[in-house]
Queue: 4 jobs
Job 1
Amino acid sequence: MSHGAASVRRWSYVVLVLMTLTLALIAVASCAMGVQVAAARRVNIAGITTAFVTGTLTSLAESLMSRAPSGVAPRAVIVSALVAGALCSSLLLHLAPVWAGALPPVFMLLALVTVATRLRDLTWQRRRRLR
């Protein structure tokens, strides 16, 4: 086997591995977006679509332009949070790229602890009212 054929085989292997990793990352991102959409539907506020920034912006603009702007505040908060998240992520990637991959799981854990704490408090309050 010639040197050129071995090189082509190596590169084809690298391409195969990179394509497999890319597909795996797409699958994980798709699952995350599905969970995000399911959570947004569970909240059940019309016009709030967290997985699609364009949809949220469109809903906000529609609410602002209508005669009776209902639901502007939640949509404005979501758009502001998206902008703030993008700015913080950009700064993090620029200033501390090593931490950029570690910080999102930390925030997710903090969110889970916050939700669990609030649910525990709500359950405790309901039990107290029933007594």
Job 2
Amino acid sequence: MENHNKPKELLAFGRVLRELRKENQMTQDQLSLFSRVDRSYISELENGEKAPSLLTIISLTKALHISLAAFFKRFEDEMKL
């Protein structure tokens, strides 16, 4: 699926997730291990192909050492771009 067909919210979420993962110097495999979220699903999230559940977001933010509030602030900022 091309980016112009994907909801901007999913694309913004994916960009923030990828940025945080890289800031934490993690591969998708490492994030998968620490969050217990499948690596292929992380890839789909980063590419704006899937919408995560709240429980998935909580697992990812814990693994990335960021609070939900801080994560959603970054998401909100990304949505303004």
Job 3
Amino acid sequence: MALLRSYSNASSGMGVADHCKDTFLELQRKKTHRYVIFKIDEKQKEVVVEKTGGAAESYDDFMASLPENDCRYAVYDFDFVTDENCQKSKIFFIACCKQGLNPWDRDVPLSPWIGMP
């Protein structure tokens, strides 16, 4: 599975830190996190983990964790029950830029994430 690349993307020069993949796999397989928030480290020119939310945290906790004045990437593990009463989980990748911010004013390249399935 080539979810997150740990090397620079040729088109943006932006890479993804190795611990991003490990943290995502903890969310996906071990269910130790409800969400992971990623940010761009301007000095290292790579995407790094900014914050993780515990398995018991809610969507409101996730939304409150996003910064008011900056754009972020996030992965959220959403649990739900189907009409057939089956417990399911879906993982969402989110590129978030809060209302009032211009995403084009901020360098928010999606090219480091191109390897996602």
Job 4
Amino acid sequence: MFIFWLLIFLFIIPPLFIMDASWIGVLIPFSGAIVMLWIWFNTGYTIEESVIKINYGPIKKSIDIHEINSIRSARNPFIDPALSMDKIEINYAAFKTIAISPKNQEEFVHQLLRKNPHIRIERNNR
């Protein structure tokens, strides 16, 4: 989250004041800021019927809950549709993985287990 705002303040806002008033000099940083804000305010996860719906700015993804093999907690800075480093990593289908960061991870996992009790919960040794 800190890195996100740092990028906005370092790479988008200063060029608006340093560059001359050309349209390209304003348009590129401004459009980058719009996309970053879109991602920030439109990231969310919902469970509907037997599908997890993931929104990450302009990106939308659906995962069938019955294809989920395992879930484990993860803490990594890699880019995923998550705004936090504290994530849950979902392994689904054949060798597909995605990490998300719902606000209440325990409740989210509990809801998934209600829909698919065959999901393996892997424990981390941290």
